[in-house]
Design goal:
Layout (H helix, E strand, L loop, with lengths): L2 E3 L5 E7 L13 E11 L10 E3 L5 E5 L4 E5 L5 E5 L10 E6 L5 E5 L4 E5 L5 E5 L8 E6 L5 E5 L4 E5 L5 E5 L7 E6 L5 E5 L4 E5 L5 E5 L6 E6 L5 E5 L4 E5 L5 E5 L7 E6 L5 E5 L3 E5 L5 E5 L6 E6 L4 E6 L4 E11 L2 E6 L9 H11 L3 H17 L5 H11 L12
Antiparallel strand pairs: 1-7, 2-3, 3-30, 4-5, 5-6, 6-7, 8-9, 9-10, 10-11, 12-13, 13-14, 14-15, 16-17, 17-18, 18-19, 20-21, 21-22, 22-23, 24-25, 25-26, 26-27, 28-29, 29-30, 30-31
Length: 408
């Protein structure tokens, strides 16, 4: 059975973000990005949605730990819930979720020690994990080998399940390391965090494990593959975001606000990393370490986060029992183009490239010609539509040119 709910009561929060500085060229305005956040209530009360991912159908899928369901939300905010069998004392307790190589969603069921699979039309399969202790299964990710990989927190193992249900398990060398987050790395290996071991682990598809110590003491939560070819992770007790190269070099970036509780992290559509702060903020960090934070309503408790289609970022609000969508759009002066601030193939974003046009010209006509060339290029490579090109050019056609400098 599935339950369907429309977008219902939607609350939108608008905040201006990461404007690209100012330069003294004697003109007004700025070029940058604007963030708009829309919130969608989950029909099941107190669902505790801890994990979220983009599905192969273009929708966003999430787990409901206490709701004992898998949820799907469309770009318009329509939520469908798929109940899981009421097994165990508290149900399946689904936690991590990922899109699989077979066009289905795969998820970890903590309460019954199983890996679940659900098709995009709601057909469910479940596979028992023989050696998993209760509540051991946490993170889950698709591998480069066509299998699904997962963490076994209390068994201190990394697990692999083929799409036919065959399970293999690999012991983590450091005892009681508590592997937590897991992701496919840019090198084709699987990377994972060790919550208690204070290490980042790497496991090849053949099962060979290498561990890299993190310099500062902390508790490592989730991990994501970045656009720079490195892995990025959250350190919840160390209050920082970490970066590790595929050869093991670690860099740490402390967060500006103490006790922020960073947990989820994902590569965004704008060439930056986005992360949750359970202390009611969403953070953004560029690949060179520049951090911006956006406050959420008190009690939001964002936990899971994932990039969606069309320049969106989605996250769960456990405290307010909602799914939230974050849209980033290009701002030119006070004019919101409505165009997603997407990353460009050769680096930077649309906003940063327009900012470069402003910084490189001393007259409005030169600025407009630069933006015209840029939008032609973006249209040719399919990054923007004809209407979006028109929207950008309309915003740059005002009487005065914006100020700008290098930025994200």
């Amino acid at each position: 059975m599935e339950r369907l709910c429309d977008s219902g009561s939607v609350r939108r929060i608008v905040s201006r973000a990461w404007f690209l500085g100012l330069v003294g060229i004697g003109l007004t305005g700025t070029v940058g990005g604007q963030v708009t956040i829309s919130e969608f209530p989950i029909p099941f009360p107190d669902a505790n949605s801890y994990s979220i991912t983009l599905g192969p159908d273009g929708n966003v899928w999430f787990t409901e730990y206490d709701g004992n369901q898998i949820g799907r939300i469309t770009m318009a905010g329509e939520i469908t819930e798929f109940p899981l069998p009421p097994e165990g004392d508290f149900g399946a307790e689904p936690y991590g979720i990922t899109a699989g190589p077979d066009g289905a969603l795969w998820f970890a069921e903590q309460g019954i020690n199983q890996i679940g699979r659900i098709t995009t039309d709601g057909v469910l399969s479940e596979f028992p994990i023989p050696s998993a202790n209760e509540h051991s299964l946490v993170g889950i990710a698709a591998g480069s080998d066509g299998a699904i990989w997962f963490t076994e927190r209390f068994d201190n193992r990394i697990g692999r399940i083929a799409t036919d249900g065959a399970v293999t398990e690999f012991e983590v060398p450091t005892p009681s390391s508590s592997p937590e987050g897991i992701v496919l790395g840019p090198d084709g290996a699987i990377w994972f965090t060790e919550y208690l071991g204070n290490r980042i682990g790497r496991i090849s598809t053949a099962g060979d494990i290498t561990e890299f110590p993190v310099p500062s003491a902390g508790n490592l939560e989730q991990i994501a593959s970045g656009p720079d070819g490195a892995l990025w992770f959250t350190d919840v007790s160390g209050n920082q975001i970490g970066r590790i190269t595929t050869d093991g070099v670690v860099t740490e970036f402390p967060l500006p606000i103490a006790s922020s509780l960073p947990i989820g992290i994902a590569a965004g559509p704008d060439g930056a990393l986005w992360f949750d702060e359970a202390d009611d903020r969403i953070g953004r960090i560029t690949t060179d370490g520049a951090i911006t934070e956006f406050s959420q309503p008190a009690g939001s408790v964002p936990i899971g986060i994932a990039a969606g289609p069309d320049g969106t970022v989605w996250f769960t609000e456990v405290g307010r029992n909602q799914i939230a969508r974050l849209d980033t759009t290009v701002m030119i002066g006070d004019c919101d183009t409505g165009v997603p601030n997407s990353a460009l193939p050769d680096g930077g974003t649309i906003a940063s490239r327009i900012a470069a046009c402003a910084a490189g010209g001393d007259k409005h006509g030169g600025f407009m010609r630069c933006v015209a060339h840029l939008t032609n290029y973006l249209s040719e490579i399919g990054l923007i539509t004809a209407d979006q090109k028109k929207a950008i050019r309309s915003c740059v056609g005002g009487p005065r040119m914006p100020q700008a400098s290098s930025g994200p």
